[in-house]
């Protein structure tokens, strides 16, 4: 026997408010995962380069950990009723992404020598 | 320049500007920033992948050049994402027009041009091998 269809609740005027916050939190998680992928690729490239490479790979791991710590309030916090501006989190995740790019350029240039 | 960078890190100044908008707009602006950042991260990941997974190319150092170009492009996209976020937030609070930008068009042209050059490189390699 099929269950009775549940009648749709009337849409509350603020129903979208929580959804906007949830969408934003999921976007932060996707971005943190993307930084993780970049960190793994950086570490793999660095490990081709001997002892210095191991140190650089460790730096890449530390970098990702730092990104997770800094963005934690936006990744896992319960959805606030009135979320504030993200503050320094935002430039920090962008600058660390650019940092991975810079590290990658150095590694590529070092591999050419 | 210094002032702009300081403003990225210190949102208090931004908070005092104009009127506080419906925060759904601020969250949407934040998600747009994150989408740009992921675009930049994809370019960076592409550069890192080119550097370690691509076989040597017909032209010397073409592989390294490609990797460095992708990495620099990705870094630029990431930094510009913050600047665009701050300018958009400012415009929303002051009730102004959203900032217009040529950057997406330039990025699209650069990526398209890069793809065409790579197709040529693949064709040159195929012609040499036959």
UniProtKB/TrEMBL annotation, chain B:
The chain crosses the membrane at residues 33-54, 66-82, 103-127. InterPro entries: DUF202, IM_YidH-like. Keywords: Cell membrane, Membrane, Transmembrane, Transmembrane helix. It is found in: Cell membrane. Pfam families: DUF202 (PF02656). Residues 24-91 form the DUF202 domain. Its main location: membrane. The keyword Transmembrane applies. It is a multi-pass membrane protein. This is DUF202 domain-containing protein.
